[in-house]
Amino acid sequence: MALAKTTVVDKIEVLERGQIQVRTATVVTEDGVELSRSFHRHVLVPGDDTASEDSRVVSVAAATWTADCVTAWNAWVAERQAAETNGD
Per-residue DSSP letters for 40-87? Predict the structure, then answer.
C-alpha cells in the first residue's frame, strides 16, 4: 500500500484586466488509485512578482503583462482607490 501526494498547477486563466488566476490541485493516491483531490486558487495582478510561480505561469505572465497592460492595471487601481476615497 503506497500512498502518494502530488501537487500540480492544473489551470491557468487570464482575466479581463490581465489578472492571472492559478488553480493548484493536490491529489492523494493509493497504489495509483485517486483517493482525493482538492484545489487552491490564487490570483496574480499585472506587475506581480512571479519568481516563485510555476514556469508555465511565468510564461503566461510574460506574454500577457505588456507595459500597456501593467499601465492600464495601475490606472484602474488608482481610479478604484479614488472612487472609494470620494465615497463613490
Answer: EEEEE-TT---TTS-HHHHHHHHHH--HHHHHHHHHHHHHHHHHHHTT
Which residue's entry shows cell 488509485? Answer: 33
Q: What tens-digit pLDDT sequence spans the chain (88 residues)?
A: 799 999 999 999 999 999 999 999 999 999 999 999 999 999 999 999 999 999 999 999 999 999 999 999 999 999 999 998 887 6
Report CA 26 to chain centroid distance, whole Å: 16
Neighbouring-strand partners of residue 23: 11, 41
Domain range enclosing 80? 3-85
C-alpha cell at 43: 490570483
For residue 24, the Cα-to-chain-centroid distance in whole angstroms is 9
Q: How many domains does the chain have?
A: 1
